[in-house]
Amino acid sequence: MITASHKQLADLLRTTDAERLETLWREADTVRQANVGDDVHLRGLVEFSNICDRNCAYCGLRKENSAMPRYRMTTEEILDCARQAMDFGYGTIVLQAGEHRSMKADWLAGVIRQIKTTTPLAVTLSVGERPAEEYAQWREAGADRYLLRFETSNPELYARIHPVADGTLADRLDCLRVLRELGYETGSGVMIGIPGQTYDILARDIEMFRELDLDMIGVGPFIPHPCTPLANHTYTNDKDDRQVPNSELMTYKVLALTRLTCPRTNLPSTTALATLNRDQGRERGLARGANVVMPTLTPKNYRRLYEIYPDKACFSETPRAYHLRLQQHILDMDRTIATGQGSSLHYVNRKQRGRYACPA
Ligand code: SAH
Q: How far, in Å, CA of 10 to CA of 199, rounded?
C-alpha cells in the first residue's frame, strides 16, 4: 500500500506530464499483478428494475424523470439470468436496481435463496439504502456482497446532488458500516467529474476508500443524462481550474491511484468508462489497475430502459456475443479469466483476521 499524502494524490490527479503518467500506469499494473494476480473476474450484472423513489440529481432513473418507462423483472426472469451466468462460467451475479421501497425485502430474500440453492454463484446486491433489518434478512438468505457508492466524500457536495429528503452522506456511510458488520463483502465508490468536484475532494475520496477499508471499489466518469438537473453541465467556465473533468484520462488516474492505495481490493473496469471509449476503455482500465468486469445479462428489452446515463456501452450486443468478445480481449492482454466466486482478497484477509468491525 502506498501512503501518498493528500497533496501527492491531488498533484497526481492534476498532472498532465506524460512521463509521470506512464510511471503511474506501470506502477498500478505492477501492484495489481503482485497483489491480485492476472485473473480477471467476470460478474454477470442483472439490472432487475429501474423503478426509483429517489431524485439523485445525476441519475436518469430519478423518480421525476417521467419520460422513462419503468419495469421490474420477475423472479423467473432473474433466475434465467442466473442460469446464463453459470453457462458463461461466471462466479457471481450482481442484482442491481433503482431504490424503490415498494420492492419487498421478503421478495428479494426469496430470489436470493433460490439463486443460492440452485447455483454455485456468489450473490452481490446493489439496491441502495435500506433498513438494517433488511440488509440482515438478505444476508441470512445468502447474499454475499453489497455495493453502495458513497458518491463523494464531501458532505456539502453530497447535499448538492441529493435532495435533503433522500438523506445525507452520514446516512450513506452508516449503511456501509452496517453492511460490513453483517459480514458482507462491502463495496463502494464515487463518480469522477461530478459538477462541483474539486481535486481536493477527489483526493479525499481516495483517502476515504482506504479509511473505510473497502473490499471492492467502483469508480467511473459522471456522464450527464439529458433528463436530469445536471444535464447541461459544462466544464469550460471553471476559471480557477479546480473542477475535475469527467474524462477518460481522469478515470484512469483514479483507478491507478486506487489500486496503489488499496492493493488487494477488487476494482472493476466500469461500463461508464467503456462508454467514453468503446474500443479501448474496458481494456485500458484493466491495464491500469482494474481486475473485474461486470458484463450485463439484463435482457435486451429492459436494458435500454436502465438508463442511469445515456448511450451506455454494450446496448446492442447480445450477452453471448459480448461475452465471447470480452473473453478474447482479456486473453489477448495476457490476462486469465478467473473461475469460482472470486472474493476480494482484501475481504478474505480481513475475515481471516476476524475483523468485521469498521476501523476506528
Ligand atoms: N440504486 C442503486 C444503484 C444505483 S446505479 C444504488 O443506489 O446503489 C449505480 C451507480 O451508478 C450509482 O451509485 C452512481 O455512482 C452511478 N451513476 C448514476 N448516475 C450516473 C451518471 N449520470 N453518470 C455516471 N454514473 C452514474
A: 6
Q: Look-up: residue for cell 473461475?
A: 339
From 55, 58, 275, mutation site for ligand 1 pocket: most ligand atoms within 8 A of C-beta:
58
Structural contact between residues 231 and 187, judged by C-beta atoms closer than 8 angstroms: no
| Distance of alpha carbon 299 from alpha carbon 62, whole angstroms | 21
Is 308 near ligand 1, meaning CB less than 6 Å away?
A: yes
Q: What is the CATH number of the domain that holds 56?
A: 3.20.20.70
pLDDT in tens, the chain (360 residues): 556 899 999 999 999 999 999 999 999 999 999 999 999 999 999 999 999 999 999 999 999 999 999 999 999 999 999 999 999 999 999 999 999 999 999 999 999 999 999 999 999 999 999 999 999 999 999 999 999 999 999 999 999 999 999 999 999 999 999 999 999 999 999 999 999 999 999 999 999 999 999 999 999 999 999 999 999 876 654 555 789 999 999 999 999 999 999 999 999 999 999 999 998 999 999 999 999 999 999 999 999 999 999 988 766 788 888 899 999 999 999 999 999 899 999 999 988 887 555 443
- If you measure from the C-alpha of residue 36 to the centroid of ligand 1, how many angstroms do you get, rounded to a whole number? 26
Atom of ligand 1 nearest to the CA of 221: 24
In a domain, 1, yes or no: no
Question: Is the Cβ atom of 222 under 6 angstroms away from ligand 1?
Answer: yes
Distance in Å, CA 307 to ligand 1 centroid? 10
139 within domain boundaries: yes
Going from the Cα of 191 to the center of ligand 1, the distance in angstroms, rounded, reads: 8
Does 302 reside within a domain? yes
Counting atoms of ligand 1 from 1, which one is nearest the CA of 225? 22
Site of grid cell 463483502: 185
Whether 262 contacts 302, CB under 8 Å: no
Contacting residues for 48 by C-beta, under 8 A, at least 6 apart: 72, 73, 77, 78, 95, 96, 97, 298
Residue closest by Cα to atom 13 of ligand 1? 149
Q: Count up the domains in the chain and report the number.
A: 1
Q: 215: domain range? A: 6-353
Report yes or no on 358 lying in a domain. no
